[in-house]
Amino acid sequence: MSNQPVVSCLPVSANKMSKAKKVLDEARETKNREIDLVDRNISTFEELPGLLNMLFVTRITLSYNKLKTVPPGIANLNNLEILNLSNNHLEELPLSLSSMPKLRILNCSINRLNTLPRGFGAFPVLEVLDLSYNNLNEHVLPGNFFMMDSLRALYLGDNEFEYLPKEVKNLKNLQILGLRDNDLLELPREIGELTRIRELHIQNNRLSVLPPEIANLDMPGPKSVLKMEENPWVTAIAEQYLVGISHVLEYIKTEAYRILYNRHMQAGGKTAGDLPPKVDKSKKASRARS
Predict the structure, then answer these.
(1) Domains of the chain, CATH where assigned
(2) Which of 10, 63, 153, 226 registers the highest number of CB atoms within 10 A of its CB?
(3) Measuring CA to CA, which residue among 35, 72, 68 is closest to residue 51?
(4) Are 211 and 192 in contact (CB under 8 A)?
(5) Torsion over CA of 12, 15, 16 and 19, rounded to 10 degrees?
(6) pLDDT tens, position by position, for the chain (290 residues)?
């Protein structure tokens, strides 16, 4: 008898589908409400037969796959609370996502999103939205993006924002705002109205000043986090930052700083010289088109 290993005659796509189908079949049999399909080399929802009819599911993890699109039918899953689509090849999202009545956490980080659908901010109960590491900027945000009253954490790091719209002030329940690794040239004064903020990540941008209103936030507290390194701060802020975050926040409350800030803004943000150059992001994974 030959000792040669048995070689499957199924095509690769059939193998992928059979593995995913097995997970789904088991979930249907046991009424498992959490579907884990991490790193299964899935390219399309067609490899997930019947998933969109599993109305009892509350959590789906599809990270580290090769999905390029999400079908509008995802909204059929009206009990879904957590959807993780991170580390895929997504270039767009369906508007229907924002109509899901119980969706609390949506992770679309590390994809290839260049835009968001109109009306994307209509999520009724969304608490955490992660859009970090994509190709988004302030011009592609839909008009209702900042109307998500329930949002507690918004991650927009590693995108291409130069400005943050002043409408951010509408996110009254926001506690975490991630803006690291963008091209931000300034922050809106309205950010000072986000009085529940406990974490603000603005490191590695092109910021040279902070709006004085940031001092309204309870950032020096023991449970608060303000990350602001790797920015071309004006000398006065840079010197205070060397001593500590609390010294920065005390300094920007002073009349001297208000004068400096107003002069800086009146000069178009160029009092420290020319605008800092953008970081070359052409080699980002989110720019790949394989």
Answers:
(1) 16-235 (3.80.10.10)
(2) 226
(3) 35
(4) yes
(5) -170
(6) 445 544 444 444 555 557 889 999 999 999 999 999 999 999 999 999 999 999 999 999 999 999 999 999 999 999 999 999 999 999 999 999 999 999 999 999 999 999 999 999 999 999 999 999 999 999 999 999 999 999 999 999 999 999 999 999 999 999 999 999 999 999 999 999 999 999 999 999 999 999 999 988 877 677 889 999 999 999 999 999 999 999 999 999 999 999 999 999 998 765 445 666 676 666 555 555 44
CA distances from 100 to 96, 123, 151, 235, 285 (A): 7, 7, 15, 48, 29
CB neighbours of 145 closer than 8 A, spacing ≥ 6?
A: 116, 120, 121, 165, 167
Residue from 221, 216, 212 nearest 245 by CA: 221
> What 3-state DSSP class applies to 197?
coil
C-alpha angle 273/270/190, rounded to 5°? 145
CA distances from residue 73 to 99, 140, 206, 239, 257 in whole angstroms, order as listed: 11, 24, 40, 54, 53
